[in-house]
Amino acid sequence: MEIAAPAPAEPTTSTLHKLLRMRETGLIAIILVMFVIMSFASPYFLTWVNMRAMVMAFAVEGIVVVGMTILLISGGIDLSVGSVTALSMVIAGWLFLQGIDPWVASAIAIAACTAIGAFMGFFVTRVGLHHFIVSLAIMVIARGACLLGTGGRPLGLYTLPPEFKFIGQGTIGPIPLVIIIFLVVVLVFDFMLRRTTVFRKVFYTGSNEKAAAYSGIRTKKVIFLTTTLCSALAGFAGIIYMARFGSAQPTFGLGMELNVIAAAVIGGASLTGGSGTIFGAILGVVLLSVVSSSLALLDVSVYWQDIIRGSILLAAVSVDHYLHKKRG
Amino acid sequence: MEIAAPAPAEPTTSTLHKLLRMRETGLIAIILVMFVIMSFASPYFLTWVNMRAMVMAFAVEGIVVVGMTILLISGGIDLSVGSVTALSMVIAGWLFLQGIDPWVASAIAIAACTAIGAFMGFFVTRVGLHHFIVSLAIMVIARGACLLGTGGRPLGLYTLPPEFKFIGQGTIGPIPLVIIIFLVVVLVFDFMLRRTTVFRKVFYTGSNEKAAAYSGIRTKKVIFLTTTLCSALAGFAGIIYMARFGSAQPTFGLGMELNVIAAAVIGGASLTGGSGTIFGAILGVVLLSVVSSSLALLDVSVYWQDIIRGSILLAAVSVDHYLHKKRG
Amino acid sequence: MPDDVILRISNVSKSFGAIRALRGVDFELRRGEIHALAGENGAGKSTLMNVIDGILKPDSGEIVWDGKPVRISSPTKAQKLGIGFVHQEIALCPDVSVAENIYMSTTNISRSFLMDYKGLEAKARNVFRQLSDIDPSVLVRDLSISNQQLVEIAKALTLDCKVLILDEPTAALTEKEAQVLFGIMRRLADSGIAIIYISHRMVEIFDNCDRVTVFRDGQYITTCNVDEIEPADVVNAMVGRVIENLYPDKQALADKSEDIILDVQGLTDNKRFSDVSFQLKKGEILGIAGLIGSGRSEIVKGICRLDGDVSGDVSLNGEPLDLKHYQDSIAAGMVYLSEDRKGDGIFLDMPISNNVSALKLEQVASPLGLINRELEDGQAERLGNKLNLKCGQLSDSVSSLSGGNQQKVAIAKMLSVNPKLIFLDEPTRGVDVGAKAEIHRILRDLARSGVGIVVISSELPELIGVSDRVLVVREGRIGGVVEGDMITEENIMHLASGLDAQELMA
Amino acid sequence: AQAEGGLRCEPGETYIMNVMVSGHPYWVPVYQGFKQAAEAFGCETVFSGTPDYDITKQIASFEQDMVKQPAGILVHPMQSDPFIEPIDRAIDNGTEVATFAADSPKSKRTAYITSDNLAEAKFAAEEIVSQIGDSAEFAVLENPGQSNHDLRVTALLSYMEKHYPNMKLVGRQATNQDSTAAYRATASILQANPNLGALWIPEAGSAEGAVAAILEAKADVLVMHADITPTTLEHIKAGNIHMALNPNQAMQGFMGFMSTFLAAHSEVFDPFNDYKVSGYNPMQIPFVDNGFSVITKANADSFDLNVYMDGRDPS
Ligand SMILES: Nc1ncnc2c1ncn2[C@@H]1O[C@H](COP(=O)(O)OP(=O)(O)OP(=O)(O)O)[C@@H](O)[C@H]1O
Ligand SMILES: Nc1ncnc2c1ncn2[C@@H]1O[C@H](COP(=O)(O)OP(=O)(O)OP(=O)(O)O)[C@@H](O)[C@H]1O
Ligand SMILES: [Mg+2]
Ligand SMILES: [Mg+2]
């Protein structure tokens, strides 16, 4: 019988082919093009110091992006990450100034941020509110708590012990520890998200919550956990910032949420859930960072910078979308 | 014949019943409760002057909320409204300072903002990008254009002719013209959204874009138009602000987008499209505004205000959600 | 033999607001039986299944599992007990692969830390070996509705369950796939698994099931052994009256006309179909048959310009059409009822009346473009009554309706515009016998009054019952046409699969 | 590197001014002063920093400035402690650093040029008391989290408390430089306190909104604020705002350049101290006050930034 249904396509295994089909290939190409252009445009661009400065500028935010990407995949969103990062610094800094060991203080701060995430998760999964509005409220509340805890003034934490500051300022060989921490977080979560059964449930839940629930997945628990994880990672990032800067600033991270979400979306995360990769999101961060750095390095007039930045963002996303669509 | 199909239930026509079933009843109740509490807490709350000041504080933003609500219903979102509002002021102000008639200058500014909306609409409907990322890029670009147009300095427009300033500062009887304009915009769009065939298509598109296309609706055109309309209204709002404050600030409206989206969502607009009302969104604006005004009137410590504001927001949305769910 | 009973439902009730979907129903399921559940649209079949699966909480009543009373609070719990469920509405994750969708529950309870994608694909390929040949590595979003339905079935078959619930699994399947499914079901039953089978196709019930339980209007009516009763008895119990003619009379010879309503010549999209030519004559109902994925839907969508680039000539009532968009098609009076009800047929969150009016709002609006709610509600009520729609209020959202009633809303939407030509893709998918007969009668009346009717259906008896002529599509081309007495299952199947084509064409 | 004619830059010797929120108009006159000083010594200048309110980005831009090996950087550190390490590293690499408008005191920066916010606050307090008496009601708007604004407010409050205990603070609202928020807050304060005599606002954006509310309520309130915008300038001319205190921005930039430049040319300076043995730059000065102007109806015409910038290059 010659039945109409077409034969299943040959599984394509060649590495090159695989690479070309990857979601991230377009972005990588765009970033490479920028690198090439910039290395001609500025002799300082491809220097070790510049590269290090560039990575340092996004490394800690990159940790927040990891949490946001996972949350986006599960179908959520979190506008409070900037405030929560600041709150983490403020709590840990404040406790430290009260005489508590900085490691203990940091653990408490991260725990508090995790609790905030759990609180949001509760409102989303039990009360049934939308992530957007819950995290908006928490964004305001957490910022208020920062002000309350500091009286609006940055906490100077110059007295933090050197072994604590090492987290944020130390280097291992030539490489700053911050970058190593960032890479570890990225690699671990990228691996887990791609390969482990636990994190696959995040995709299922975000792709079709009902279908996932029908398969016995406790989707509310999944959403609760991704919401909590995102805040926990923001709290963790706050501690690293604190160690890096030796201070806790109540106004830290204003507007960070849009940057972080943008990075994840540029990297292919869907705002309606179900798809996204850590690798892509980090490429998104890199892209935004390369653009900012390049504009600064080329001494582009500040009055032009935003216009160019926005246009490159739009162009990059369009090109990526086109390439992705073309590959099918 | 005992046929299964029951006669369609009696349409319940009693006005009370209708009111109770309305999406907005919960919000109205919450706002009323706040009014009662506040009128006991402060003798100044329920005064004409205070009420007028409160409405003046949200009236212009309310116009932007109208545009955003319609866009949300169609399934879109716009993060650029704050920048576009500022850009409208800057364009009109700049042209005026070049000697162009302020009315003409304003018309050009609104046209430019409309064009920006159309530009975004193009990227969304033709290129196929997500509203979020397109409007984020435009947010950055428009802010950059504001800086470029002003050199970062506010434009003093004290010399605007009185008949132009009248838009923003005049009163008709005891009522400020701004409030009248706001009410007209709200009533017109509320009516159109509820009653006209054109706007009904916005609901269809947002509810299920594919089904709408299968019903012969040009969904891309609808989305294009709602995106354009939202920017046009933001541009219009910018002109009113300009007339009101007699200046054009390049940094105006920072963070406005979150406020505006929050108001629409509190008022029942869905972030996934397909539902929402102007009336509800305006109630959302009123709610946020009552909270802010009350905190100021009661002279609550600034370090507590954000915490209280966020908490009330969260509580109000939860209560509303609960009431809505209970009514089914 | 009471210990044979694996699941017993007693006196279960469930209301949604004012709607009493279940009123103290009883139900009993034995090990190793295939137990059909029949009832009109909205009788409460899916609701009961959702109660059994822990998706809905019953208001009252008892569930006894294997002799012990249980509370099933979630699908997870149900899964632990050993209940597998294929839902009436397809519920798959569009962003992940077919293989992962099939093994979602397995992944969920799996103790292994890492995903074994290769293993999953191999296992999935194995499952499909007997069912169809879908590539397990593709994303579900790239599958057609019928293939998605097959994935749903495959998903249930992989479950290690004691009770398997199939809620209208064959609604979008053709005979061939359905037969495969029945074979598998019987094997499962023989190994002791109890199967609840919900369907509106009487033939399937009588050919494949052991017992049948009938619900009407949320109430339990009766349970019988299938070999002790006739289909008419079941129908009678379901609707509370006798339905004499499932299908209306066909076109009388005298009514035959040579006027051509639709003339399609050389329609091609170079991907899914090519060189399609056919005509629809006045007064006749044209059926389109074919295997899953043969391109039936694509051809019809191509005619209406709903999809992609299409070339070829289409004329309606003798006038050549120059269509650019589907809007032009609607304007010309040619409409399409989609096979994917949930995906592109209805607006789930919107009121029933708004759904019905969506195709041509101008009809319920003043010349100035103001919608007149009374007209809108009136239209929905009129068409709803005509189609025997069972609903609460017209302002309720369509999501609150049973599957079959949602389909009626979609049909009402098509009828609302008084079209010149309707393409109906699986029009009675999930619709109960009574309403089906009603829809068929309406179609016949429309055809008689000069409206062109083209029906695509995977249910051969339906095609045979309603069509005056059947076009058989094979691999994107017209495989042949059968007419009059030649419209038989064998002939259609032969043409569809390409056997003996020459012979039949003669 | 000293030419015959005295202190001058070598060709290509560059000085960078690095800020956060680089689009903010505050920097415009500062940079003009910076540039004017640089021109006097034949030096090149670059205006750099980040357009964002983001410490990480500012540090990245500072480090990128460093890569270019300029002679000196005048930086407005968004936060003091995070800049210690980058500033010290720059100085170790031969780029001199001075700070302005915000300091990083624990770093090796050679100088800090700023307005004296305490002096501004004290002046404002005395002016308010001289205008409305020492037993009246007053209110403040504020911008918690921004240190110089904070200081302007808290210093005024403590000064009042100490010297004029009968002055009653009846309102204290955060408006965060948002004119709409300031409008709302002021309207509420006016409602609750019909006898309000004066309002002190640490920046101009909020002042615009506050004046709108006061005009609408037809209240008679003495408004004083710091900084200036064209709109508040017009309000001063119209008598709606009593006066504004504006830091001498150009002087800030000019002295900022001088400090950085002199730090880079410290060879001309041999002070009476231990610098040779201890190895630090002899050009050290903890604090330079750039002073402030009092803007009133009488002198308002000289403070129109757009007029000032006419024909000048902002970058
Ligand atoms: N979520 C809901 N909200 C309100 N009413 C509902 C809901 N789900 C089902 N109903 C109502 O309950 C009744 C029974 O629906 P159910 O889906 O069980 O019918 P069914 O027998 O499966 O019909 P079909 O053959 O059409 O699938 C219907 O009247 C339906 O409108
Ligand atoms: N969105 C799509 N993307 C890719 N292929 C598709 C898509 N929709 C349909 N196809 C493929 O096009 C071919 C024809 O599909 P079509 O839906 O027209 O078939 P059909 O005869 O109506 O059968 P059925 O609807 O029962 O699957 C099939 O091979 C199908 O898999
Ligand atoms: Mg059902
Ligand atoms: Mg089909």
TrEMBL record, chains A, B:
Keyword Metal-binding: no
Localisation per UniProt entry: Cell membrane
Keywords: Cell membrane, Membrane, Transmembrane, Transmembrane helix
Membrane-protein topology: Multi-pass membrane protein
InterPro entries linked to this entry: ABC_transp_permease
Superkingdom, taxonomy of origin: Bacteria
Chief location category: membrane
Transmembrane stretches, start-end: 26-46, 52-72, 103-125, 132-152, 172-193, 222-245, 278-297
Protein name: ABC transporter permease
Species the sequence originates in: Parasedimentitalea denitrificans
Automatic annotation (TrEMBL), chain C:
UniProt catalytic activity: ATP + H2O + (2R,4S)-2-methyl-2,3,3,4-tetrahydroxytetrahydrofuran-[AI-2-binding protein]Side 1 = ADP + phosphate + (2R,4S)-2-methyl-2,3,3,4-tetrahydroxytetrahydrofuranSide 2 + [AI-2-binding protein]Side 1
Subcellular locations according to the entry: Cell inner membrane
SMART domains from the UniProt entry: AAA (SM00382)
Residue intervals of the ABC transporter domain: 7-242, 255-500
Principal cellular location given in the protein's record: membrane
InterPro entries documented for this protein: AAA+_ATPase (IPR003593), ABC_carbohydrate_import_ATPase (IPR050107), ABC_transporter-like_ATP-bd (IPR003439), ABC_transporter-like_CS (IPR017871), P-loop_NTPase (IPR027417)
Record-listed E.C. numbers: 7.6.2.13
Subunit structure: The complex is composed of two ATP-binding proteins (LsrA), two transmembrane proteins (LsrC and LsrD) and a solute-binding protein (LsrB).
Name of the protein this chain belongs to: Autoinducer 2 import ATP-binding protein LsrA
